[in-house]
Design a protein that fits this description.
single chain, 751 residues, alpha/beta, Leucine-rich Repeat Variant, ten-stranded parallel beta sheet, two-stranded antiparallel sheet, 7% strand, repeat, leucine-rich repeat, ARM-like
Length: 751
């Protein structure tokens, strides 16, 4: 089943291929003159491995932003004595003329070139090298492959501006391609004579002429005894076309579908045309008539239509002409036609817009070559996922992932696909998804964020990330996801909602992670970015979620990470702290976050002298009386002061306020707190608190530390008792009870 399939590990072959491609130098290759990749001389690889290396390479370049393409990659396969290629699939900008040229000695059996816009007529000549072995060839969307550069003879002034002109090659044909059976010329450039091009081919089995306008297709009858598959998507048809098609009696797959939005079509499908196909094309197992308008009613009376169990038997077909079929079709394309909504359709698989099954069939059938149709199908899926419940969740997810990977630069697909992903990954579907599948979703989402600065895509991607457990599920892409989010937050013009989600994600990413992660993110400019956001909000005099999350994120990222605490001070963090306190005196949540952060700064001995000013100490002392957020603000202010007191009287380099006066205020604050307070704080380690126990220089700091431990272990024993034992707190408390300098109430609490 799909569930099991999606959860099984990658094959060893796939893992090895991936590893070798990411480490070519350390595995198959060495670097010649520090620049050219060369295969080690003792390596001999069969086509099963070489094909996979090339096809996976293309996939990695296309979908993995971190993967670096190599100039000389294809030259590794130039010698058939050490590497054999047979079936390769190349796409888009990745392939250039010199790459095909490099592998011209290979005996290729199958060569798919999809949307390779950089290929020119030089590659047509290279194709001739494969003519004696090639069985399958696709030139789909290779719009420049019939163009060559022509140098004008007499060089006038024009030469400097336009030294070369693009000229259409007229004399190329498939002469000598004696084994070629399967050919895709989809979206071929206008002006090429298709008939002349194809005439030399003896026995074609499959031909795709998508998007090509031909008024006369009579020449197709030369293959009437061999042609089993014909695709004429978006070709403007006429009665002549239909008569020719009806003669191709061996056809098993016929696709005359169209994109109903693309242009005006005169041709309308009629009952007679469908009858003609059913009568003459007796081997037909697959037919696609998506996007067509039916000129007359092809359906049976509606009373009869609604009767009985849904059936795929031709005899019960709601579409009258299909009652003549010998057996149900394997596939029937009815996307964006009225026929897909009928009850009895004589096909095992139907593409359409009636229900989830039909929509998924459409996405599956059209993703590779018809993004314009696919984006509309994904839009329908988005509605199903949003309003109803998806019953084929895994299939839906995998199809959307494939579409997003395949069309990384297609804005419509990125917008609809990223929106669908949001609904397909939310919590109600969570149980059905494997780790591997959820990781694939994250990869595609991050690809989308990298390729598109477009607001809708960015928002959809950020929202989708919120469906994951953070930081755990994003850990495997930790650096990359942080860089992308900081990039969003550093843009000068920002969408409010994206800013809010991105700050929320940043905050979640630095919560409960290891210190090396926090240091790495700090070095990426995290602290600076948050302070800039706070600065902006302060200038606008707004204290919203972005403001609060930014302080919260700073609190998290400075936890036991001295480098980040230092950055906070260096980038005028204290100035912003005071300004926020003054501008928003009533915002309790804000005060708690700011003081939590300053607690982290105060734990770093080297930074404490920077907090030693009359202004700061005065502010902290006043906050001891704060009732904001229960005891949290008062507790954190007292924590900051406890660390400062711990440095002793000689470190107190100010006249106002007096050290004794502050100590007195600290005692009365601690005595006013309820020892059973439930807390809004999360300790990963007690180390900063425990270091205040074995000392006699500041009894009040000792008391604050003991109070903190007592409160946490009594209110949350399951969480904090083990932590206290693990970090060696028990002997420290026992020793403290014996100390003469410790206050009696501190000893009681410790006991």
């Amino acid at each position: 089943s799909l569930k099991m399939a999606s959860d099984s590990p990658e094959s060893l072959m796939t893992l090895c291929t991936d590893y070798c491609l990411r480490n070519l130098e350390g595995t198959l290759c060495y670097l010649l003159d520090n620049e050219t990749l060369r295969l080690h001389p003792d390596i001999f690889l069969p086509s099963e491995i070489c094909d996979k290396l090339v096809n996976e390479y293309v996939e990695l370049v296309k979908t993995d932003s971190i993967f670096e393409p190599h100039e000389s990659f294809f030259t590794l396969f130039s010698d058939p004595r050490s590497t054999r290629l047979a079936r390769i699939h190349l796409r888009e900008q990745i392939v250039q003329d010199q790459d095909l040229e490099a592998i011209r000695k290979q005996d290729l059996v199958e060569l798919y070139l999809t949307n390779c816009e950089k290929l020119t007529a030089k590659s047509l000549q290279t194709l001739v090298s494969f003519s004696h072995t090639l069985i399958s060839l696709s030139l789909f969307g290779c719009c420049n492959i019939f163009y060559e550069e022509e140098n004008p003879g007499g060089c006038e002034d024009d030469c400097l501006v336009n030294p070369t002109r693009q000229v259409l090659v007229k004399d190329f044909t498939f002469e000598g391609f004696s084994r070629l059976r399967f050919l895709n010329l989809g979206r071929l450039i206008e002006g090429v004579n298709v008939e002349t091009l194809l005439r030399p081919l003896a026995s074609l089995a499959a031909l795709d002429l998508s998007g090509i306008q031909l008024n006369d297709v009579g020449f197709l009858t030369q293959w009437k005894d061999s042609l089993v598959s014909l695709v004429l998507y978006n070709m403007d048809l006429s009665e002549e076309h239909i008569q020719v098609i009806a003669q191709l009696h061996k056809l098993r797959h016929l696709d005359i579908s169209r994109d109903h939005l693309s242009s005006y079509y005169k041709f309308k499908l009629t009952r007679r045309v469908l009858n003609l196909f059913v009568e003459n094309l007796v081997n037909l197992t697959s037919l696609d008539i998506s996007g067509h308008t039916m000129l007359e009613n092809c359906t049976i009376p509606s009373m009869e239509e609604k009767m009985g169990q849904t059936s795929i038997e031709p005899a019960k077909s709601s579409i009258a002409p299909f009652r003549g079929l010998k057996r149900p079709l394997q596939f029937l394309g009815l996307f964006e036609t009225s026929l897909c909504r009928l009850t009895h359709i004589p096909a095992y698989k139907v593409s359409g817009d009636k229900n989830e099954e039909q929509v998924l069939n459409a996405i599956e059938a059209y993703t590779e070559h018809r993004p314009e149709i696919t984006s509309r199908a994904i839009n329908l899926l988005f509605d199903i996922a949003r309003i109803e419940r998806c019953s084929q969740l895994l299939r839906a997810l995998q199809l959307v992932i494939t579409a997003l990977k395949c069309h990384k630069d297609d804005k419509n697909i990125q917008v609809t696909g990223s929106a669908a992903l949001f609904y397909l990954t939310n919590s109600e579907y969570r149980m059905e998804q494997s780790v591997k599948l959820r990781r694939q979703v994250i990869q595609v989402v991050l690809n989308g964020m990298e390729s598109y600065q477009e607001v809708t895509v960015q928002r959809n991607c950020c929202l989708t990330l919120c469906n994951f457990s953070i930081p755990e599920e994003l850990e495997f892409q930790y650096r990359r996801v942080n860089e992308l989010l900081l990039n969003i937050l550093n843009q000068s013009r920002q969408d409010e909602s994206i800013q809010r989600i991105a700050v929320h994600l940043c905050n979640a990413l630095v919560c409960q992670v290891d210190n090396d992660h926090k240091e790495a993110v700090g070095k990426m400019g995290f602290v600076m970015t948050m302070l800039k956001l706070i600065q902006k909000k302060l200038a606008d005099k707004t204290c919203d979620q972005v403001m609060e999350f930014s302080w919260s994120a700073l609190w998290n990222i400075t936890d036991e990470t001295p480098d980040n605490c230092e950055m906070f001070l260096n980038y005028s963090g204290m100035k912003l702290f005071l300004e926020c306190l003054k501008e928003f005196p009533e915002k309790q949540e804000l005060h708690r976050n700011m003081l939590g952060l300053l607690g982290n700064v105060a734990e770093v001995k080297e930074l404490r002298p920077q907090l030693m000013t009359s202004q700061f100490i005065g502010v902290f002392s006043n906050l001891l009386e704060s009732k904001a957020d229960g005891i949290e603000v008062s507790y954190n202010a007292c924590g900051v002061l406890s660390h400062i007191m711990f440095d002793g009287p000689e470190a107190w380099g100010i006249y106002e306020p007096h050290r004794e006066e502050v100590v007195k205020r600290m005692w009365s604050a601690i005595q006013s707190w309820d020892i059973n307070s439930r807390r809004n704080i999360n300790y990963r380690s007690f180390e900063p608190i425990l270091r205040l126990l074995p000392q006699g220089i500041s009894p009040v700091s000792q008391h604050w530390a003991t109070w903190a431990l007592y409160n946490l272990v009594s209110v949350y024993p399951d969480k904090y008792c083990p932590l206290l034992i693990k970090e060696g707190g028990i002997p420290l408390l026992k020793d403290m009870i014996k100390m003469a300098s410790a206050r009696q109430e501190t000893k009681e609490m410790a006991r």
